[in-house]
Amino acid sequence: MILTATVTGKKRKRRSYDPEVLKQGVTLCDDGKYRWIYAMNMWKNPTILFLILKIFYGIFAVGGVLLVIMSLTQPAYEGKLWENLGYFLIFVAFFTVLILIAYSIVAAMYGGKYIILFTMDEQGITHEQVKEQARKARKLGALTAAVGAGRGSLSMMGLGASVAARTSMSSDFSMVRSVKAYKWRNVIKIREILSNNQVYARDEDFDFVYNYIREHCPKVG
Q1: Do 20 and 48 sit in the same domain of this protein?
Q2: Do 180 and 82 have their domain in common?
Q3: CA angle, corner 168, sides to 130 and 111, nearest 5?
């Protein structure tokens, strides 16, 4: 049975961590922690896709700068700057298509939804894939690593190992440097020195979650 009690604000206190309860919105549990489950539509909300593209384009940008430097300083590349840049842009476009295809396959595997359990208290917040999706992520990561090993690709092996191992992320509020809200995408981005986290909340809970996080991050102005 689920017991309900009046608490500060509009959040209800529950003794049950039943997923069906947590899907209804942010819930204050009897251990003093807020929990909720958010199902992000991967087709309509491009947040994860933007993050993936941002990471890869950052890598491409570094490669592009190195290519320009080599084209201007190495005799073997002299006079071939625009030709090399043309090939590089074709490579970037080709890789972008591959990323879009891979994202679509993963989204289809997840049934079009990225489902996350959030646990939040005064110390920090944890972002964790629900068990069923975490198992799929581990299998996908292991498959990617195996394919990378078969092709001798260290980058693919590393990516696969990372995906398989990381199905959750925690942020310590005392270490947070930046908190930014993107309400139209239902996402709050939390940045620490060496890591970034993304928190999702429904429209009805968004302001509460955003304000709670900001109020408990002493290093955020």
Answers
A1: no
A2: no
A3: 40
User: Which of 60-69, 121-130, 146-155, 166-175 has the lowest average pLDDT?
Assistant: 146-155
Domain ranges, residue 52: 43-109
Helix (H) or strand (E) holding 24: none
| Cβ atoms within 10 Å, residue 42 | 20
Number of Cβ within a 10 Å radius of residue 193: 7
Show Cβ contacts of residue 18 under 8 Å, excluding neighbours closer than 6 positions: 2
* 26 and 128 both lie in a single domain: yes
pTM of the shown model: 0.70
Check residue 13 and give its pLDDT: 53
Interhelix angle 154-165/131-151, rounded to 10 degrees, is: 170
Q: Are 158 and 138 found together in one domain? A: yes
CA distance linking residue 145 with residue 133, whole number of Å: 18
Do residues 89 and 177 both lie within one domain?
no
Determine the pLDDT at residue 115: 87
101, 125: one domain:
no
Domain count for the chain: 2
Cβ distance 94 to 9 under 8 Å?
no
Can you tell me which residue has the tokens 């102005």?
Answer: 221
Cβ-count burial 169-186 (b if 16+ within 10 Å, e if not): bebebebbeebebeeebb
Count of residues for the chain? Answer: 221
